[in-house]
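Bench notes, afternoon.
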Amino acid sequence: MDFKYLLIDLSNYIGAVPCMIGIYCWNNLTSLMKGYLIGVIINACIGILSIISAKLEINNHFVFPLLAINTGILYCFMFWHLSENKIIRYSITVFYLFFILYIFYDLITNNIKYFNFQLFTLIDISSLILSAIWLNKIISSQFNITKKPLLWLLFSIFSGALYDVLLTQLSGKMALYFTNKWQDIFALNISPIFQIIKMSILAYAFYLARHQKFNSNKIPDLEQGR
């Protein structure tokens, strides 16, 4: 076993935990959380597949476009479902549709080996903004919000997107002012630990669904601004 990549492997395998909790609580999940769970299960399978292929010395670059496409579909479903405003729903659908189509264009024009990782920045920024908007709506309009599954689901998206955006901005500066050792520390240690924390938050969100169903219709619509 290569202990150098132990945390990375663990952060991928830990993705199975919220999946199992979500499946166990399936009957208590809203349609929104069921759809999100399916996307999380697919992402977890892709992550585990990347580990297995790497151990078999198979090039695992193919997982990156798969992750990007599934995440684009997942967030499109999530934020479309949260909004009742037709214009916002249309805008969300168009953005993520173009995002997915551009991934296919990138794969056609470039080899998978040269996948454009900057595409993840687009989806990180969009999910950061959209999750922040609905988090604000929930926090300003609900009571006893810490027991709301959707709050923690959105917080896992927001915190993950915020970390990824900050890391993207800092990685260039680290490469410029520090040695590659610092980049390795983030890639091999800090990022996997943060992923484990994010999966723990998501698992807690599904766990809370055992006790209640969250009605997303109670969230004030963006157009109405209630």
